[in-house]
Amino acid sequence: MGRQNTAVNATGWHAVIKRWRRNNRGRLNRLLTRLLGTAAPRRRALAPDTRRILVVRLNKRLGNILFLTPLLRTLAASLPTASIDVLIQDVKQKALLESLPGVGRVWVQEKTLTKLFGLARQLRRQHYDLAIDPSGNSTSNRLAMVLSGARQRMGFAGDTQWLRLSHAAPRPRSRHQAEQAVELFAESVDTLALECFDTLAVFPAAAAQAQARQHWDAAFGDADVRRPVIGFFAHATGNKQLPAAWWDDWCRALATRLPGATLVQIRPPGQPANLLEDTVGVSIAELDVLAALMTRMDVFVAADSGPMHLAAAAGIPVVGLFQSTDPAAYAPLGRGCISLSGDTLTGTQAALAVARIAASAQRGDTAREG
Questions:
Q1: What is the pLDDT of residues 60-81, one digit of tens each?
Q2: Contact by Cβ (8 Å): 163, 153
Q3: Same domain for 183 and 213
Q4: Cβ count near 187 (within 10 Å)
Q5: Please, which residues bridge with residue 42 across strands?
Q6: Cβ within 8 Å of residue 41, ≥6 positions away
């Protein structure tokens, strides 16, 4: 009992200290904003010679990196002569961004202090004309913008925006981070004809497509793959993950509505066994190769997770499952994507949604053949 009370007290003190630090950081940020920062929006034209752009998103979550793709495509289409570089944290995500139109170099933040200083020197040598922070509350993003030495800086204005910005958007109207990033650019820049994008996108290179074909052939061998091909990812972090019983219900309901479908389970690297029987399992560590494999599927089903957003970016209709997160902020953004939550989040409803998407795709194929 004594140890239990000690653990509870430790947890309580940890929460108090964390709240104290957060409150003090907020007070400091508001003070710095009044002295140095950007509390009010600033909409103005870009410098006419804006050619080199750096987008900073220092976050390791796959979904957050994919949320950059509408902004990157908007930048490339609206500033066709510009070269767009990106600074991220996870080298595994690099290939997903390198193949986007207009993207030049994808920098990866180094972990050691020596390498961080080296990266800062390299960034300053690029002489960036514009640095963009598409998130509203990242200290790391702001520091990287300062270290880059860019002569123009773009971000969201607010009472805790302690960085002095040349271009600042008001608090975003949209809740989805991908839409907020595009809104930032549209609301910060004046006298520029914009071509905006509102869906995620990746374009795997030929080498990734070839590797995906090898994984596909290894999974199916000489077997005749029956359509539709339904991919699914049954894993997610924390409360976002649905129980195995939910997936069993979904599988039974799907067998009733699409008895001829081929099920392909995407497993995390290192996961040796499939969750469901009578399904083909594939585990791929390279994200661009996984995206290329997903293009061979007709529908993808997953809880709120990186693979859910990757499938949407690959152009596959996605049925997103939201148990504990809000689809308004994290929905899969892509062609034919839908989200289920609340009372609609059942195996039967998910199977019905898959069947409707598959039927619509089949009608489209028939129309094209005609």
A1: 999 999 999 999 999 999 999 9
A2: yes
A3: no
A4: 19
A5: 168
A6: 157, 168, 169, 170, 187, 188
* Distance separating alpha carbons of residues 349 and 261, to the nearest angstrom: 17
Mean per-residue pLDDT, 4-10: 53
96 and 146, same domain (yes or no)? yes
Last residue of a domain, one of 161, 188, 215: 188
Closest CA to 70 of 157, 199, 187: 199
Instruction: List, for residues 106-154, the tens digit of each pLDDT value.
Output: 999 988 878 888 999 999 999 999 999 999 889 999 999 999 999 999 9
Q: Which DSSP string corresponds to 305-317?
A: SHHHHHHHHTT--
pLDDT at residue 367, rounded to an integer: 40
Mean pLDDT, residues 180-184 taken together: 97
Longest dimension (CA), the chain: 76
Q: Compute φ and ψ for 341, nearest 5 degrees.
A: -155, 170
Domain span at residue 311 reads 206-369
Last residue of a domain, one of 154, 188, 222: 188
- Domain assignment of residue 210, yes or no: yes
Residues 65, 177 within the same domain: yes
Q: What is the CATH number of the domain that holds 109?
A: 3.40.50.2000
Query: What three-state secondary structure class fits 85?
Result: strand
Among 334, 253, 331, CA closest to 295 = 334
CA distances to 31, 54, 169, 194, 363 from 133, rounded to whole Å, are: 21, 9, 11, 19, 43
CB 304 within 8 A of CB 236: yes
Say whether pLDDT at 165 is over 80: yes
d(CA 75, CA 302): 30
The CA distance from 140 to 163, in Å, is 12
How many domains are there within the chain?
2
Do 327 and 228 lie in one domain? The reply is yes
Task: Using a cut of 0.70, tell me whether the model's pTM lies above it.
Answer: yes
